[in-house]
Amino acid sequence: MTDALWYFGRGSGVVSLVLLSLVVALGVAARSGRTPFGLPRFAVSMLHRNVGLTAVVFLSGHVLSLLFDPYAQLRVFDLVVPFAGNYRPLWLGLGTVGLDLLAAIVVTSLLRRRIGASGWRAVHWLAYLCWPVALLHGLGTGTDRGTWWLWATAMSGAALVIAAVGWRLTPDFDRRTRRRVAARLLVSEGVR
Q1: Quick one: which of 2, 16, 105, 134 is 20 to 30 A from 54 by CA?
Q2: Measured distance CA(179)–CA(183) in Å, rounded
């Protein structure tokens, strides 16, 4: 049973990283005025949400399997307090920070109607911090950290996220915002 926990912990961590990369890219796409592949925004938003929930499920499996695995020797304390672990404290601590950030994102998403869109958005920006922290955790800890396939997987996810963020930073990323600004200008011009 111990080997199964160890393999599941490793595999679910890699799957979580791949899914988190997709979530960030889909989140950027959902915000755009021009979504990829001609999909409507609601479809991209639903895909973003569903992939995000799936990532949380795999991340939960990753954490729980390693918590109960005698080889990993994680303590509940290590899952809450960053950089306090016995095993590679920096890299494990980055995983704890990523878990804490993701927990904040999930909780505020569940409470979005109660805290308002601006409060939710402010916390949701943590995804841009959560993802590289999770990436560094995945590349710095575990028995697969030096394997070519993990680095290839991580760099593919990094390329996807960097491309999405690069697209997000282009001037014509969000046509809807430009339309809103133009509409406000027209309204203000008409009022004068």
Answers
A1: 2
A2: 6
pLDDT digits (tens, 9 = 90+) for 149-188: 999 999 999 999 999 999 888 887 776 555 555 556 566 6
pLDDT for 48 equals 92
- The confidence band for 38, taking pLDDT boundaries of 50, 70 and 90, is confident
Residues 138 and 14: beta-carbon distance below 8 Å? yes
Alpha-carbon torsion, ordered 136, 129, 103, 34, to 10 deg: -120
DSSP 103-121: HHHHHHHHTHHHHHHHHHH
Select from 88, 24, 91 the least CA-distant residue to 52: 24
CA-CA-CA-CA dihedral for 61, 65, 66, 68, to nearest 10? 140
Q: Which residue has the tokens 């949380």?
A: 56
**Residue 131 and residue 20: Cα distance in Å, rounded?**
7
Cα separation, 70 vs 139, in Å, equals: 22
